[in-house]
Amino acid sequence: RPELVLERGVVLAGRVTDEAGAPVKDANLNANLDSWESASDHQWGQTEADGSFRMKALRPGKISVQVSAQGFTHLERELGKLAAGEDQELTFVLERGGSISGRLLWPDGTPAVGFVSAEGRNGFSVFGGDGQKTAEDGSFTITGFEAETVTVRARATRSEEVTVKSELTGKERTKKQKSPWNATVEDVAVG
After folding, report:
1. Residue 78 CB burial class (10 angstroms; 0-12, 13-18, ≥19)
2. Contacts of 5 by beta carbon, 8 Å cutoff, 6+ apart
3. Which among 62, 89, 112, 135 could bridge 156 via Cys, Cβ 3.0 to 4.6 Å?
4. Which tens digit of pLDDT belongs to each residue from 4-25?
5. CA distances from 108 to 88, 153, 184 (A)
6. Cα 83–Cα 87–Cα 90 angle in degrees, nearest 5
7. In what order do the strands lie in the sheet with 87-94?
8. Cα(152)–Cα(125) distance, rounded to whole angstroms?
9. Kind and range of the H or E run holding 156
């Protein structure tokens, strides 16, 4: 029979604010132990309306925290080696980041509704994954960059009539299908 001896975890609590001291609601926090051995080596959290957060049950060890929020630059802080039962009261101050604005257009110049994401040279992505949905007129604004230039990627789908030829009969027919479209622009200046 195994005997398990419990050890009190590390608790991280505090606030996330902007440069003026105003709380940042819905900021994402990611705390990681240097060596990933179990689920308790990694914790995700999000701030409340007052900017407060609390993450618990991290194993003791060398811990780092990454903080991100829409419109702000990404922040990473090394907390060093924390002992069992150690509680840390932390304040993270996020800086507003630069922004890019633009429009997503079809080749004929008409607006496209799709998804746009951007990535800085440091690999930090704003609206990664599916990205930010554009407005009906194709316009978008993405904020939170610390980089001077970014790579912008977009994707959209469009219903099109295409002609397909049957391999069996050799006959052609027209059908509607949704086609994926993609665009990438590198070295976009952040304003």
Report:
1. exposed
2. none
3. 112
4. 888 888 999 999 999 999 999 9
5. 56, 19, 17
6. 120
7. 52-58, 10-18, 87-94
8. 10
9. strand 149-165
Length of the chain in terms of residues written: 191
Rounded CA-CA distance 60/36 in Å is: 12
- The span from the CA of 98 to the CA of 139, in Å, is 17
Residues 6+ apart with CB under 8 A from 30: 42, 43, 44, 45, 65, 66, 67
User: CA nearest 82: which of 55, 62, 66?
Assistant: 62
Handedness of CA 75, 78, 83, 89 (dihedral sign): negative
The yes-or-no verdict on residue 40 having pLDDT over 70 is no
CB 76 within 8 A of CB 32: no
Give the strand pairing for 52-58 and 10-18. antiparallel
**Looking at residue 54, what is its pLDDT?**
96
